[in-house]
Amino acid sequence: MHAVIAAKIMRDPGLLAKPRDNIKRWSVRFGKNPPRWIGQWRRILALSYLEIAALITEPNEEGARLRQSSPFAGMLTAQERRRIYETFRA
Q1: What is the pTM of this model?
Q2: How far apart are CA 62 and CA 77, in angstroms?
């Protein structure tokens, strides 16, 4: 899913507003003791769109760990998610 998200970001870096808003909202929800990953994502989302696209698709353990707490919820349409799921079912 993050490969598709990275491609969308490359076409339109303005889409990064959504995960940045998600991080802001989550920060408020967790209050004074946010999980460590919120700060990590905040730092990542301050990078260039090229760096962000590369980081979210890293095939290593760190990339997998970051994707477990991904702020990219809402970036894919229902149709895009369905296509991804169908591809993996085939």
Answers
A1: 0.84
A2: 26
